[in-house]
Design brief:
heterodimer, A: mainly beta, four-stranded antiparallel beta sheet, 0% helix, B: mainly beta, six-stranded mixed beta sheet, 10 strands
């Protein structure tokens, strides 16, 4: 079974631009979660989608948004990019609850975003 | 919310047990403790999780103290491939979902 795939793997943008990142979950998984990882803040939770509905959201500004399609693929968008948005953006999928008692969450390799 | 603290780095000899501690002194009764690890340039990988009881799977054991203020991840026979950053994460229930408190991670170096 193919793992979680993220595209693109690397991206360079300038301040003020917007960016869209894509995530394809493991076949059959309906939950997709997004995380930001930086050297300073470490791992932080962005949001979780299940069956096209945002089920949970972390503490990020409204510039960060996401969506999930009927095939469970997900995209996240960051508008008006700031230098501090430079990070590794990780996507993860699970069959059900990613932080529940039974389902395991699988991470993709991430998209490395650099904002200049 | 439970704050998670971990030592920044640890060393372990190959074949020995690696014991990675995590402090979550403000944890409450319904908050799970999760462990993931991240090998350089890869996404995190699930290891184990628990609520109150000790847990064991094919990868590791998780020991949670009776007061639940700390836990220890045990890799019983560390190999060179276990060199990674290990994250302790506490899941906090909310009315409308949950929040996640990530530790900063412990960089484990397994040496020959």
């Amino acid at each position: 079974k193919a793992g979680v795939t993220q595209t693109p793997r690397y991206l360079i943008k300038t301040r003020g631009q917007q960016v869209t990142l894509s995530c394809s979950p493991i076949s059959g998984h309906r939950s997709v979660s997004w995380y930001q990882q930086t050297p300073g803040q470490g791992l932080q939770f962005l949001f979780e989608y299940f069956s096209e509905t945002q089920r949970n959201k972390g503490n990020f500004p409204g510039r960060f948004s996401g969506r999930q399609f009927s095939n469970s693929r997900s995209e996240m968008n960051v508008s008006t990019l700031e230098l501090g948005d430079s990070a590794l953006y990780l996507c993860a999928s699970s069959a059900g609850q990613p932080w529940g008692s039974t389902d395991t969450q699988y991470f993709g390799p991430g998209t490395r975003l650099t904002v200049l | 919310d439970a704050k998670t603290t971990q030592p920044p780095s640890m060393d372990c000899a190959e074949g020995r047990a690696a014991n990675l501690p995590c402090n979550h002194s403000t944890i409450s009764g319904n908050e799970y403790v999760y462990w993931y690890r991240q090998i350089h340039s890869q996404g995190p990988q699930y290891i184990i999780h628990g609520l109150k009881n000790n847990e064991t799977n094919e990868m590791a054991s998780l020991i949670i103290t009776e007061d639940r203020k700390s836990s220890t991840l045990i890799l019983p026979h560390a190999t060179l491939r276990d060199t990674a950053v290990y994250y302790c994460i506490v899941r906090v229930a909310r009315n409308s979902g949950y929040a996640l408190n990530f530790g900063k991670g412990t960089s484990l170096l397994v040496t020959p």
